[in-house]
Write a structure and sequence with these properties.
The chain has two domains: 2-223, 3-Layer(aba) Sandwich (Rossmann fold); 230-364, OB fold (Dihydrolipoamide Acetyltransferase, E2P) (Beta Barrel), CATH 2.40.50.100. Helix 4 packs across helix 6 (136-148). The chain has eleven helices and 20 strands. By secondary structure, the chain is an alpha+beta fold. The strands form four sheets. Strands 6-7-8-3-9-10 form a six-stranded mixed sheet, with helices on both faces. The longest helix has 18 residues, at 166-183. It has helices at 40-48, 90-94, 96-100, 105-118, 123-126, 136-148, 166-183, 194-200, 218-223, 228-233, 328-331; strands at 2-10, 14-23, 29-33, 55-60, 63-64, 75-78, 154-158, 186-191, 203-208, 211-216, 238-247, 251-256, 259-264, 273-278, 284-285, 294-305, 309-316, 321-327, 340-345, 350-353. Residues 358-374 have low confidence and may be disordered.
């Protein structure tokens, strides 16, 4: 599946999608990840034929389907609200698309039964139940089965787990990913949930204000964000604006107000202004910070215990705040608010992010600032 220069303008003034281009390999699980209003669902609807692009083209299986109606695109969609028919049985819902295609009744019955088996809802137990007689998780499976029974080339999923509780949501994430691997169908998934995207996807496209800011696998997106927006949106990050003051052998000395920070020097120039991103789990606290090239002192002003780890906010003596996520196994207990501690990180744990005008992603448009309480 491929989109080229896809643009959508509503009411001749509201630009929802701005010149988006990307391709998805056959059999991949691709996720469009972004905040509410970023344009991700609009892109999905244009792929499925539910919205007509203002500009650009959509290709499925190498065929230009831009002007084709949804039923001629060889796609199926699972909507956020599921859109199941309450007056039909489970089997009736799943077989609806096949009946619209005039498939013979005996073929429909066989494929509906196979689809129910795929989503672990045995036909004998669930086939004749009404939609209001099954749970939220079971309805989710029915929606998946209804989309899969037509054997599409591309399955489109628009935040389908949004209404589920956390435990069921995680269960459906695992089962959907397993199902995609089993079937080998191309999945295009839309979500605003970073953890969901990282868990399920082969490739992630991070979208902001109608533009793709970065595409890559989970590791690349998390560990090597291309823009400030991506660094701040995927998980948490300490984002520090700094100037390159001095180049040394292998490292650079960077300054932010009274802070002097050692960072990798590759590709940097004296006087350059950029951002450093340091993930909270890379920021060490207490005696663990003693050997760090970047070592500062500060006071714990906030602490959140989250089971296996504790998230602490440190007010640095030299100004600014940092967030650290420390393992309870390492420190033995949570750190009380008011504690004065050392905090630090190694230069290799900082990611250099240039201002938007110097990044590849910014050629699509400038990224907005992300308000972070851990930003310096």
């Amino acid at each position: 599946m491929e989109v080229r220069d896809l643009t959508k303008v509503f009411d001749n003034s509201v630009v929802a999608v701005r010149g988006v281009s990307f391709g998805v390999e056959k059999g991949s699980f691709f996720t469009l990840l972004g905040p509410s209003g970023s344009g991700k669902s609009t892109i999905l609807r244009m792929i499925g034929g539910l919205e007509r692009p203002s500009k650009g083209r959509v290709f499925i299986g190498g065929k230009d389907v831009t002007r084709l109606p949804p039923y001629e695109r060889d796609t199926s969609m699972v909507f956020q609200g599921l859109a199941l028919f309450p007056h039909l049985t489970v089997s009736g819902n799943i077989g609806f698309g096949l009946r619209m295609r005039k498939v013979p009744k005996d073929v429909i019955a066989k494929r509906v039964e196979e689809a129910l088996d795929l989503v672990a809802l045995p036909h004998k137990r669930y086939g004749e139940r009404r939609i209001n007689q099954i749970s939220g998780g079971e309805r989710q499976r029915v929606a998946l089965a209804r989309a899969l029974v037509t054997e599409p080339q591309v399955l489109l999923l628009d935040e389908p787990f949004g209404a589920l509780d956390l435990k069921l949501r995680k269960q459906m994430q695992v089962e959907t990913k397993k199902l995609q691997r089993t079937l080998g169908i191309t999945f295009v998934f839309v979500t605003h949930d970073q953890e969901e995207a990282l868990t399920m996807s082969n490739i992630i496209g991070v979208i902001n204000r109608g533009r793709i800011e970065q595409m890559g696998d989970s590791h690349e997106i998390y560990e090597r964000p291309a823009t400030k927006f991506v660094a701040g949106f995927i998980g948490e990050a300490n984002i520090i604006r700094a100037n390159v003051a001095e180049l040394r052998t292998g490292n650079a000395l960077m300054k932010h107000d009274r802070l002097e920070i050692v960072a990798p020097a590759e590709g940097l120039s004296v006087g350059e202004e950029l951002f450093l991103s340091v993930r909270p789990e890379k920021v060490r606290v207490g005696s663990a910070a003693d050997g760090c090239a970047n070592r500062f002192e500060g006071t714990i002003v906030d602490e959140v215990y989250v089971g296996l780890s504790s998230k602490v906010t440190i007010q640095l003596d030299l100004g600014g705040r940092l967030i650290s996520r420390v393992s309870i196994a390492d420190i033995g207990q949570s750190i009380p608010i008011g504690s004065h501690v050392a905090v630090g990180w190694d230069p290799g744990n900082a990611i250099i992010i240039r201002p938007p005008s110097e990044t590849v992603a910014s050629r699509l448009g400038k990224s907005p600032s992300v308000p972070m309480r851990s930003s310096l």
